[in-house]
Amino acid sequence: MGAYLFVHFKEKSTPDGEQVYFALSRDGFCWEEVNGGQPVLWAFYGDKGVRDHTIVRNRFDGRYHIFSTDLSLAYGMRGKYKHSWDKVSRNGSKCLAHWESEDLLHWTEQELVQLGDEQFGCLWAPDIVFDRKKEEYVLHWSSSHKENNYGYKEIFYSCTKDFRHFTPPALLYREEESGVIDSAIYEEDGIYYMFLKHEKTPARIIELCAGEVTGPYRKIEVFDERMQVLEEGQYEAPTAVRLEDGRWCLFVDYYGVQGAGQGYVPFIAPSLASGDFVRGDKMFSFPYKFKHGTILEIGDGEYERIKEYWK
Description:
The chain has helices at residues 73-76, 85-91, 221-227, 300-309; strands at 2-10, 21-25, 31-33, 50-57, 64-70, 95-101, 111-114, 124-131, 136-143, 154-160, 170-173, 180-188, 191-198, 205-210, 218-219, 235-242, 248-254, 263-269, 278-279, 290-299. The two termini are 21 Å apart. The strands form 5 sheets. A 4-stranded antiparallel β-sheet has the order 3-2-1-20. Strands 4-5-6-7 form a 4-stranded antiparallel β-sheet, with no helix packed on it. Strands 8-9-10-11 form a 4-stranded antiparallel β-sheet, with no helix packed on it. By secondary structure, the chain is mostly beta strands. The chain contains 4 helices and 20 strands.
């Protein structure tokens, strides 16, 4: 029997929210907090806060890696960023926060991995996909860039096999009339599917597909039709997981209200190729205020060890 680990942060105005939290599920629908809803990892370097986590198991050596946006709004928005999102975007960290583990229980101390140079703005929302053809991992993120005067954000990527050595960053995807952020890429039957937060016309989540991880990508129109049920400008941070029965569950982070109305909204589809994601709230239970993260499929033994370790 399989299980799932969700690595996320929390929407709070205090520094403890922008840390690393775990949640567990047996089926991908009903989730429970780990460690009593307290952080399992803390950021002590960089901005001393982390957001937008991704987790992966390296198939070459079995080690686990967490990468996160190096950003604290609890500390920085009042101080170094002067309550300005433009200053965050231009002057934020050129690094990603990183932790490593052999067993999901014991983690290395946080380190900062510099992937951007001074031509980049803040590096946001990393995620990771394995390129089967090249047998390497593609770490991708969103950022503004000096090339367009730190205007619309675009998706960049870097390749690695060991999460120690990375290729120079390159452009993965851009749009001329809109920023794109929060990329999440998955492979199904040799095709790669990317979910994005599209910031203008429509200001919704979109789905694209390509024969190669690095594109070129084209839109899946059926998905656009399904997302019309969502109000524009209220959803972000798409993340997906394949369920045991073969269906896909897409989680979309609803940030459009303050308080208990926030949280993830689930959509179910028979396949990524179909784009036919239908909202499924009644099948879904998730504690309030879980924010931007990703899901890792784990084994029954790992599920039990994590529960016991953080009991």
